[in-house]
Write a structure and sequence with these properties.
With 128 residues, the protein is an alpha+beta fold. The chain has one domain. 27% of the residues lie in helices and 24% in strands. It has a four-stranded antiparallel beta sheet, covered by helices on one side. Helix 2 runs antiparallel to helix 3. The longest helix has 19 residues. The protein is globular and about 60 Å long.
Length: 128
C-alpha cells in the first residue's frame, strides 16, 4: 500500500451553536431530529440571548400545539395561521408526519435543546 487517500467527510462544528429539535412519532418509536444553526458563534451567545429566547419560545408554542390533539391532523395549517400567526404556521407546516400513522398526523416535539461547541470542539448542552 503506497498511499492512503482521505477525503473530507464532515465540517468541524467548533465554535457553532445549534437549536436541536427532536420530533417523535408514535409512542416515541420514530425519531426525527432537526438542527438549526445560529448565525453567530457559540462564544458570542451571551450577546444574542434575545434571539435565542425568541426562537426557543416559538418552538415551545409549536410544542404545545402539537400536544393538543385538535391540531394533530395534517390539515390544520389554516387554523394555526389564524390563531398563532405566520411564523408559527410556517413552523407547523415543516413538522414531519408520523410514519406510525401513515403520515396523517404530525409528530410531536419531544425535546428542545441548545447545543454549542467551543473552539476545541467540546460539546455543551442546555435544555433551557
Amino acid at each position: 500500500m503506497d498511499k492512503i487517500k482521505f477525503k473530507k467527510s464532515k465540517e468541524s462544528k467548533s465554535g457553532k451553536l445549534y437549536l436541536h429539535l427532536l420530533f417523535e412519532g408514535g409512542d416515541a418509536d420514530t425519531k426525527h431530529p432537526e438542527t438549526i444553526e445560529f448565525p453567530f458563534r457559540f462564544s458570542e451567545y451571551e450577546h444574542h440571548l434575545d434571539e435565542i429566547e425568541a426562537m426557543y419560545n416559538d418552538y415551545k408554542i409549536l410544542q404545545d400545539i402539537l400536544e393538543d390533539h385538535d391540531y394533530k391532523t395534517r390539515d390544520k395549517s389554516d387554523e394555526v395561521l389564524r390563531e398563532y400567526g405566520e411564523v408559527i404556521a410556517r413552523l407547523y407546516d415543516q413538522v414531519p408526519g408520523d410514519p406510525q400513522n401513515d403520515y396523517q398526523f404530525k409528530c410531536y416535539l419531544g425535546n428542545i435543546s441548545l447545543i454549542g461547541y467551543d473552539e476545541q470542539g467540546n460539546q455543551y448542552k442546555s435544555y433551557l
